[in-house]
């Protein structure tokens, strides 16, 4: 049984660099909240300390779970500023924005140029 999450997760697509003491990896955040992120395209062992680098700004985190090509990273502090926080806020606003009504295009009028009649031959 899963416990409910305390922070809303928002789908995003943010390219980042993940840096550890020994390595630097390229990945993409696909799921972001103020308390953590799901990263695809790379993975580190569970429990690893790392930093997520975006636009010259770093956010520290700990790998909570890891699979072959993705991982979940928990931030020690809630996001409150910086480019990653701004991306989260923009994604939240976009998700809550009303969708503009788009009427369907009108169906083409039916035209028939053959002989008229219903179930009868005309010749």
TrEMBL record:
Q: What Pfam families does the record tag this protein with?
A: PilZ
Q: Which residues form the PilZ domain?
A: 5-76
* One GO molecular-function entry: cyclic-di-GMP binding
Which top-rank group of organisms is this from?
Answer: Bacteria
Q: What is this protein called?
A: PilZ domain-containing protein
């Amino acid at each position: 049984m899963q416990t409910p999450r305390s922070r809303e997760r928002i789908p995003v697509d943010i390219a980042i660099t993940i840096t550890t003491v020994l390595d630097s990896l390229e990945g993409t955040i696909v799921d972001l909240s103020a308390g953590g992120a799901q990263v695809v395209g790379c993975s580190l062992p569970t429990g690893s300390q790392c930093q997520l680098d975006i636009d010259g700004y770093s956010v520290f985190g700990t790998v909570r779970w890891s699979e072959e090509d993705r991982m979940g990273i928990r931030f020690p502090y809630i996001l409150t500023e910086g480019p990653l926080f701004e991306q989260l806020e923009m994604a939240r606003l976009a998700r809550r924005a009303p969708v503009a009504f788009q009427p369907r295009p009108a169906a083409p009028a039916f035209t028939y140029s053959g002989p008229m009649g219903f179930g009868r031959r005309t010749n």
